[in-house]
Amino acid sequence: MNYKAKGIAEQVLIAANVFILFILIFEEKLEVPLWLQPLGRMHPLLLHFPIALLLLALAMEFFRFRTTYASNAFYRTFLTNLLLVSTLLAAVTIIMGLFLAREEGYAGQVLAWHKWTGVGTLWMASLLYWGRQTTWYQVPWARAGTVLTALLLLVAGHYGATLTHGDSFITGPLLAEAEKVPPALEEARVYEHVIQPLFEQKCLSCHNPEKIKGGLLLTDEAAIRKGGKTGKLFVPGNPEMSLLLQRVHLPLDDKKHMPPRGKAQLSAEEVALLAWWVRRNADFKQKVLELPPTDSLRILAEAALGGTSEEQFDFAAADEDLIQKLNDDYRTVAPLARESPALAVNLYNQSTYTPEKLRELNDIRKQIVFLNLTKMPVKDADLKSVGQFENLQKLDLNFTEVSGKGLRELSSLKKLKSLSLAGTPVKYPELAESLRGLGNLRTVAVWNTGLTETEVEQLRKKYPSVRFIEGFKGEKTAPMQLNPPQLKNASPIFGESLALQLHHPIRGVEIRYTTDGTAPDSLRSAVFTSGTVLGQSTSIRAKAYKAGWYGSEEARFEVYRSTYKPDSLRLLLPLNRVHQAEGTQTFFNSTLGTFNANSPAWANHWAGVRDNDLALLAEYKRPVTVSSVTLRTMIEPETGIFPPAAIEVWGGTSETQLKLLGTFKPQVPVKGTPPALQALGGTFKPQTVTFLKIIAKPLPEIPDWHGSKGRRALLLVDEVFVN
Q1: Judgement on whether residues 329 and 231 belong to the same structural domain of the protein
Q2: Are residues 462 and 607 in the same domain?
Q3: Model pTM?
Q4: Residue-range definition of the domain harbouring residue 129
Q5: pLDDT for 253-268, tens place per residue?
C-alpha cells in the first residue's frame, strides 16, 4: 500500500471510529432511513471477511518481535497493511450491524453483548494499530493486546451466532444428546414433548426474546397464543385458516415462507404434526395417550417420540422420490413412523382441489393408511379413487359434499377402522346401507350431519361394534368454544349496497352482530340473516352462538361504501420514493393493504408522503353529487406512521375554480396507541362537482413522547372513498 493510500485509509479509520461513537451515544434517537436498511442487512454477508483477516493479522502481530520476523521488511510492511485493512473492514461491518440492530425484532441482552464485544474488538484493534507505532509498544503489550482482541472477537462471534441460530448453537447437539431423556409414553404431552421441541429446532432462532422477528415469540403458551404483528398464529381446529400452516405451505422462494430460505426446513412429518395439532384445537396440556389409538396426531406424535406403531404392515415402502414428487404446497404425504411403510395424506386449500389430486395418489395406493379430505369439495364420484386405497384405516371426510349413497364406493376398504363424516349431508337410510360392507369399522363421527338422535340410536343397534360420535349436547358433555364467524363477501368495498355474507362452518350456529360499536351478545344483538343489506360504510362486530357450545370470540369486519370512482385521477405532488404503490391507480382499485407497509409483499398497496402533501385531483365526465370523502390510512405510531394532520376536500365544475367543501382534523395518537387501519375524513353539505381535489397533510411534527419527536410523520393511504 503506497503512502497516500495508507494515509487515506488511516483517516477513514479515524472517521469510522468517531462515527460509531456518535451512533452509540445517540442510538435511541437514531432512525435508519429505508435506503440505508439494505446496507445494514449486508452485515452478516461481510463480517466473515474482516474476521478472517483480523485473526490472521493478530496471529502475525503476536510473533512480530521474533528476530526472524522483526528483521524482515516485507513481513513488517505486509502486517501493517493487513492490520489496517482488517480493522477498517471491521469498522464498516460494525456500522452495518448498528444499522441492522435498529430494525424491529432485535433486542435483549444477547444483542447488547454482541454489540459491545464487537465494538470492543474494533477499539482494541485500532489501539493495536496506532500503539505499535509508539516507543512503549513492546512484546508484552503486543501479545496481551492480540490475545485480548482475539478473545473479544471470539465472544462477539459467539453472541452473533446466538442471535442468528439460537442459544447454544455450538454446544446444542452435545447438550441435547447428553440431557435427552425421552419421557415415558404414558406421561408424554403433545405440545411439551413433540410440538415445543419442533419450535425450538426450527423456529426459535428468529422468534426468541433476543430476536423477536415479526413481533412473534415462541417461548411459552401465552406468547404463542398472542401471535405476532400480522395476527394470531393459528385458529384452533382450523389449520386451513391458520397463519402458521399458511406460511409453512408457501413456496420456498416466497419471502413469507417459514422457516426462511437458508434455514433448516420442516419435514413432511413435522408439517403434518403441526397441522394435526392445530386441527386438534392446539391443546397445550393434552397427553399423547389421551388421543384415540387411530388418531393421526397420536400416531405421528408417537413416531416423533421415537416410538413405532405396534402394527406390522405387509406391504413395501413407496419410492422416496415419488413421495417427494407428490408433496406440494397443498398436499402432504408423510410416513406414519420411522421405518414404517405406511403413509398419511393431507389435502389443503379448497380452491386448488381437483379430483386429479386423488387420482395422482394411485401409485402409492397400497401405502396410504390415513387420508384427510376435511373441507375439500369432495363429491361422491371422487370416492371411487379413495376406494382403491386398499389398506386405508382412517378417512376424514368432514364438511365435504359426499352423501350416504356415495359411501358405497368404500365397500372395498376392508381395513377401514375410522370414518369421520361431520358436517356432511348424509341421510340415515343410505348411511345404514353403506356401512354394511365395512366390517372392520370401529368409529364413525356423525355430528352436525342432520341425523336425529333416534337415527343415531338405530345405527348403534344395527352396528353394535361401531362407536358413533355425535359431538356436543350441551349439558350432557363438556362444551367447546365456537370459532369466530367469517366474512364471505368477495370484497369489503361495495357500491350502492352490500348483501352482507357472514358464515360459520358449523351448521345451526346463530350469528349475532352489531353495527353501532357495541359488543354483540346472545340476547339483544341482531341475528344475522341472508337478507341483511348494508348501505353505508360500516364497522361490524359479530359472535357465533349455539346451544351446548360456548360463544365464539368476537370477530370484527370493516366494509366500505365507494360510490363514485373518478374517470381520471392526477397526483399534484409526488409520492414518497419508497411508497409509490401503483401511483394513481392505488386509490380506487378496491385493494386494501395491511400492516408491514415496508415489506415488498405489501408495499404496492400503500401510497405515502412525508415531505409534501398528498394531493389528488379527480375528474368526473358527468357531474356527481358528493357529500363525504374518507381516506383509509395506516396508523402505526411506533414506526413513525401517523394519521394526517388535516384533510381538505375541494370541489367545483372547473379545475381552476374550486371551493373548500370541508376540512377534517383527525385526532393525533397518544403514547401507547395501538396500530390501526382507519378510514378518516367526514361529511359536508352535498355539492355537485365535476372536479374534486383531495389534500391530506402529513403531521408536521411527531409528538414529544416519540423517539423521533419533531420530525415529519409518514402518511400512508391505500384507498379513497367518495360518496
Answers
A1: no
A2: no
A3: 0.44
A4: 3-165
A5: 677 778 876 666 777 6
